[in-house]
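Minutes, structural biology subgroup

Action item carried over from last meeting: produce the structure token record for Citrate:proton symporter (Clostridium symbiosum). EB confirmed the sequence was re-checked against the source entry. Recorded below for completeness.
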Amino acid sequence: MLAIVGLLTILVVMFLIMTKKCSTLVALIAVPMIACVIVGQGADMGGYITAGIKSVAATGVMFIFAVAFFGVMGDVGAFEIVVNKILRIIGKDPLKICIGTLIITLMTHLDGSGATTFLITIPALLPIYDKLKMDRRVLATIVAAGAGTMNLVPWGGPTIRAATALEVSLTELYNPMIVPQLCGVAACVTVAVMFGLKERKRLKGTLESVSVEPPKFEDLPEEERVKRRPHLVWFNILLIIVTIVSLVMELLPPAGCFMAALCIAMLVNYRDLKDQGKRMDEHAVAAMMMASTLFGAGCFTGILGGCGMLEAMAQGLCDILPVAIMGHIAILVAVFSMPLSLMFDPDSFYYAVLPVIAVAAEVAGVPALAVGRAAICGQITVGFPISPLTPSTFLLTGLTGVDLGDHQKHSFVWLWLISLTIVLVAVVMGIIPV
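Output recorded by EB:
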């Protein structure tokens, strides 16, 4: 009963989001609430919701202040000098921009943090995409592909969780996956090139009219000149760099980094109280929409986890699989690992689902290590940037301004193909048994 209701809940939420039958926020809150009542645990719903919200509270606060901070930095013109410099170097070629987007993403995700990657990459690149009128969904997809593929690194969350759950060393689990991961990166390059060529063809008639020369301050509209602070541009760029370094080095909690940065930005750039109020009012809607959606996701995962639906789905999966299939469980997990990111959050999958599957697989003669390597081919690695169960997904969609459903529809097939590339190479190398 719990497993069936849990599966239906996830499918209904995904259907509503991708078909835009209702907003992402409403789908993430209303559907699991109804499911909780159906399974007879309505009396405990409040506790489940509270637990889920607590799990994402710190990230939600960070989202609010990060959006406000980068919004203010855009207002003062801090990104203009970087954007114009990049455009002067690479010109107006969408192909070069798409490849550059991927390279930057791969480099910034070396720390294994999706939130950090998105916060560094998207605010810097979005103005370039907008200036050339490139599709924002392309930016979201390429960044998702690069970050997802890099998330296999041994210090990334999924690989650490898999090694912990299976009680094996990280090197033993990850080292054989280095070559498949590099092939996944090559697949990302192919996707970036494909999108670059597609955008080059689509924008062929309009790129010629786009000037890479920065407009003069006096030529800007009045409302833009009021917000800009050209005499403080280098201070603001330094503030962005210090904020990101503080975030990466964990000098303060992520929320604390952006709280402090926003305060400094406001005090230095907009000393008048009315100006500060206008800046916050302008970015409040985007910040609160992103944060509220994240808290909705906390409600969703809190109810599914609290009711026991996720655990029931894990057990049910093993119960319904015939014994004959268990001998091929590693390849099945590998192939469907990316789509499974839409159904299980990282903790539920790696600490609840994976151990159960690994034990059943060992009975059928399949090493637990093979199942673990199969899982990291896509489950909350390549698949994490489209999963509504990971907070950083909402940061990606919020910063790019792309609807979650649109992002999933645009990215799903390409991310799955990248994951399958990793799987294919791992199978050919004998890392994952067929």
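Discussion: The mean pLDDT is 86.
Next step: EB to file the record with the rest of the batch.
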